[in-house]
Specification:
single chain, mainly alpha, Four Helix Bundle (Hemerythrin (Met), subunit A), 78% helix, elongated
Length: 149
């Protein structure tokens, strides 16, 4: 069981590293709402890393606080995607504006997964909290696959 949890942590850590590498190169040269959006996603990535460390240390308070910040981000995220903000260096796909229902659904999934992580972290149940974090990370990955170039 410990090996399974270790593999889970390693996978989540590698996912976060992958996100950070891609964003580092893209932020250079960004301006206006695109830069603001990229900065918000960098903050989001840092919060995911913080949650991962919280899981390793059973620090449910840090997990809950970080998930609260992600929940707030989910609610303000749509305003960071005005029409025409898919120009370089943005990695936003034009599918965001071609399929707004799908994009809004992806954001809603992120919101619900953030809320679930908050709720699970309040139980202090490690396994349930890990599963909620996996689900949250999955919403990020799913959205990036559909709506990120």
């Amino acid at each position: 069981m410990k090996i399974k949890k270790l593999i889970c942590f390693i996978n989540i850590f590698l996912f976060c590293i992958l996100l950070s590498t891609a964003n580092t190169f893209a932020v250079e040269g960004a301006k206006g709402i695109i830069k603001e959006r990229m900065d918000k996603f960098k903050e989001s990535k840092q919060l995911m890393k913080k949650i991962n460390v919280g899981l390793q240390n059973d620090n449910f308070k840090v997990i809950e606080e970080s998930a609260q910040m992600l929940l707030l981000w989910s609610k303000e995220m749509p305003k960071f995607f005005p029409k025409g903000s898919d120009i370089s260096p943005s990695e936003a796909s034009s599918d965001i504006w071609l399929n707004p229902e799908g994009f809004n659904e992806a954001i809603k999934n992120f919101e619900l997964a953030s809320l679930d992580l908050i709720n699970q972290s309040n139980t202090n149940d490690r396994d349930k909290t890990i599963n909620a974090f996996r689900n949250l990370a999955g919403t990020c990955k799913g959205c990036h696959q559909k709506f990120r170039n």
